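JOB MANIFEST
job_type = single_chain_structure
chain_count = 1
residues = 225
[input]
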Amino acid sequence: MQMPPLRSITSVQVLVMLVAILIWKVTVSIVWEYRNYVPPNFESDFLFGRESYFWNGYHGAFYVHLLAGPPSLMLGTVLISQSLRRRSFAWHRRLGRVQVALVLLMIAPSGLWMACYAATGAVAGVGLGLLALATATCAWCGWRSAVARRLEAHRRWMWRTFLLLCSAVVLRILGGLATVLQWDAAWLYSASIWTSWLVPLLVFEISSSSSSLVKKRTLPSNITA
């Protein structure tokens, strides 16, 4: 059996590390904005115009989302590490349970509630609502696959979960890009919401399908080698 080139493995590891660093950096910048949320500053970008309904239930979902979001993202960057799974599968399993609990009990329900109050209207609200449901579904399927010892299916479902969680990071990057390019169209935020999770998910599905096809084609030669 022919081993993959060492250079390819190193490149993938470096790419994953760089993406993880980017996610952490953007997450820290998101957390830094919490100074506008505790106590709530209704002149800040996200809370502007929400004062009329903020204390009528929205605040509960909002603060739950703030509390659970960054830990779930940071856990995701750790859980995708192959070295952690190999060196300490027990810790991988414990941290995975924490992440699934955060998604199912906190992130998805609060995100679904907040989606009903999307600032730019129904299109953005539907996108956020479906994102919450998709994230919960993937996390649940990932957990069930792990319990059933279907490890490849578990890996795929949890990668989907992680990519959906990263929609917050992608949305922030798209927002920064729009600011730099001075794009201020009314439809831009709604389009960014849908793009932030549909595009990464589509790329993952295409990549996974291509990888599976390559494995099927190379399997006979590997067996006879």
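[summary]
The chain is about 80% helix and 0% strand.
The chain has a mean pLDDT of 86.
exit_status = 0
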